[in-house]
Model the fold of this input.
Amino acid sequence: MQTSNKRSGAGAAKHFAQEGGSSEVRHPKRFGGLRFVSASVLLVTLLLAANYALALCLEPYGGVTEVTWWAYRQAGDELDTVFVGNSRTDASVDVATFDEEAGTCSISLSTVFQSLEDSNTAVQTALKEHDIKRVVLGVSASTFSTGRHIQSSSTFTQAKALGESPVDVVSDYARLLTSDEFFCNDKSITSLMPWTYSHVPYDVASIRQNVRNRLTFDNPIDANRNIVNPDFWHVDDRGDRYIDGEADFSWFGCTVRSSGSYDEYLEDNKREFVRFLDMCAQHDVRLYVVGVPVQFYDLVSQGKHYPEQMGWVKSQVEAYGGTFLDFNMAREGTYAYEDADWADIHHINLGGSKRFSAVLARELMRIESGEDVSADFYSYDEWDGFMADYDRIYLVGFSAESCDGGLSAELWSYAGTRVAVEYEVSVLDDATGEYEVVSPYGSSAERTWPMDAEGTYTVRVAARHVGADVPFERECIRTDVTYLA
Amino acid sequence: MSIASLAFALFVFALLCVYYVVGRVARDGQWMVLLIGSLGFYALQGTPVTMVVLVSVALVTWLAARGLKRLDEVAAAKRKDASDRKDKKLIKQRYQRHKRVVLWGSLAVCVAILSYFKYWNVLLCYLRVTDDPTSLGILLPLGISFYTMQSMGYLIDAYNGTCDIEHNFARHLLFVSYFPQMIQGPINKRSSLGPQLFARRRMDVQDIRRGLLRSGYGMLKKVCIANVLGGTVSKLLTSLESPAMPGSLAAYAVLLYSIQMYADFSGGIDMVEGVSELFGIRMAQNFKQPYFSTSLANFWQRWHMSLGAWMRDYVFYPIAVTRPFRSLGKWGTKRLGKQVGRSLPACVANVIVFTIVGIWHGIEAHYVAWGLFNGLIIAFADLLKPVFDKAARLLRINREAALFHAFAIVRTFVVVNIGRYFDCIPDLGVAVSALGRTFGSFDAGAFGTALSTTGISYPAFCGVPPLVLVVCLFVLVVSVLYERGTDVREAIMGWWLVPRLALYVAVGVAIAVSFGLETVSGGTFLYANF
Done:
């Protein structure tokens, strides 16, 4: 064992080879302290430069969070309403429709996977820089059950930094890096490199297109329209985001069994929510916390947890002088979404957001004119009645696996509590293009049927009310059912 | 606190600054800085209960070692006063018995603490007292296996008189709680780690450079290979529960697990060894290119070496020299010949040792089977050595030839991976079934279809993105260089600045890209569970 202060030159050092056991080695060149510091500074500079260059090449120019904050920076002084929340809120609210109905001037600072902490930051920024009269926070169960998401928070911080003072930028990043969720794990490192999560495809054409967009377009909204791999978010002229397309209800019934399950509300989120309410109360703005539309299956799978937990949210909002409206509990005639309103299992599409935003604006304006709108909504005490009043089969799904000599399937559906469902299983015959019934209509939720040959099959499960005189009311089709003998 | 986090980097940086500043101004204060840092690190990781467990283990072993020394002193004094040889012998025997009681008593306390946290809930589950192996909510304190074994090793050394007895409890507590070893080892010996912890040292740039290089290499393995493959391996192994999955998929899953396990464990060890080197302290070596082993016994001399050394010193040798084992050797020589007589006690001891190694990993049946598999293979290889030697002579096989060396490496890799079925598949029945399918119905043709049903990430690359392959290749090259005796770190440090910086930037970018490819959370290590 040696102590370093007794070394004279390189030769005295005794080191273990990394994996190769102990060995006496001589340092090829003694590295002085100053040289080490210089080389370290050079290395850090190179790493930062590489990070910057990779961000320019790989991070999509015109991503939706970047657009969100760019649009905010362009907004005029007349801004009076701000929407915050996660992607469900962003997709559900069409600010143009809302403004048209309510006569307001709004901006949505909602972003994908936005945490309550980031909602808080967004609202604080808007309150500091504009004369905001109205704050609308869109919530769903996932708002409270999901932890802070690194990709969302780092892109949020990065996008917010554009156009900010250096002091605010440093303060935002310091808060991000030292936040409880990231400080003690590798997210604290990757939060400085959002391109590692959010990037164009790793191919030359995509990277070239992205760089070209940076050089060609002087704002992220125009770039967004030329973005490489634009997933399903689109941007209108004023920077508001929307989703196109319609959900295929015959497919996603199979995917929601796990994603729709109930998750406990996180204590950190509850604390952050109370902080948010307190901050709004202190700024003397009208606060609306709105339960944005989630699909009926989501409510069913949360069961009685939903009214219990949302009941807590409502009580907190009211304690801080805000207004809580849950549009998932709206009575018939107030608001009800249609299949065509959904872009996917979580998000409302453009048409749906226009319908929802018009209803939301009308309800808020009625409240501001002094009307009581509570009769438009079921209370959480009426949960059982609400579930019983729902008379549709909302969704059907199944899982299938190989069993002895065939396939076995577990079937499920999401429907009102008084609805009795029956199922039929059929398999696509590739030769004829027709579905062949392998298990006829019946109430059993477990089915098995024989298969002749190994392979991947298309299986369809149809569902209807027991005894209904229609071929089916809902169906679920899977093209990836594999049979292995 | 994950080792790959800003918090850990700041913690180490702050501790380093204080450590070396204190080294300048105080003659004997650096170890106290390490102690405070280590306890602080541990306090941040766990709960008050885990801290109490750590201090309790340290206290028991410290008191017991002091007790052993006191007994030696009393015995020596009494023997000095005794007049005849018979009395001296009786005194020696009596105090030896007392020492044994102290040793076994304190070892029993340590094992009981370890067993409670590691096995109690699982045992209750096996006995069907509870349905869930986590039902009692007993959280395994971080590093409990490693620091308990290290403490027990110190105690046994103290009993044997092969190490200095520590009089200062705080110094002993530092030996037990030294923070880099708390995550996943290695298991250090008092005689090698102790003097380093308590020596005064000044900052040496070479140590810092070597430490950073090693940590960076470890992080490359951990992030670019282990974390990217983790989710894929997990899904593949889960899919093996279906009896319809072909043997080819089982073999692929186990192969990827082998790569992931090596990258995770050796990567993590490199990271903590590198951190320790920043303080000028070199911990026990834990890996020596294990997948270049030429036999299973050789593999265990290269994989988790500190555990192997612990088992050798504190279990294997003590067992092998007991009277029953000596008798077994004599019986074997008389009945089965000289060679068998010489090997038999070691073979039985090996089976026992590896069964304990299996149980150390977990009390579940699959771990016991894994330990037994390793012990039996090593035992039979030893017993049948004369047969193999004779066969090689008859077939005129040159065992020194490079081709045979390569064959031995491949053969050992296959044997190690057969054992891995029991290690990585948590249900023994499924493990046996998967192994049976690998040899009975390999069915390479069904591999693609089966793989598509597992839901793995990067299905186009069979779950292994090209970057992982590149990094694996890099690790292979580095391993070959080490195997050939090159100290790669020294070589890199001797490079010209530009290629050296280019290498560092490339490694940094690879790690950054891999963060985005991760299929498991990067904070934990597989061996932290043990």
Q: What stands out?
A: Chain B has 21 helices and no strands. Residues 349 and 445 of chain B are 44 Å apart (CA to CA).
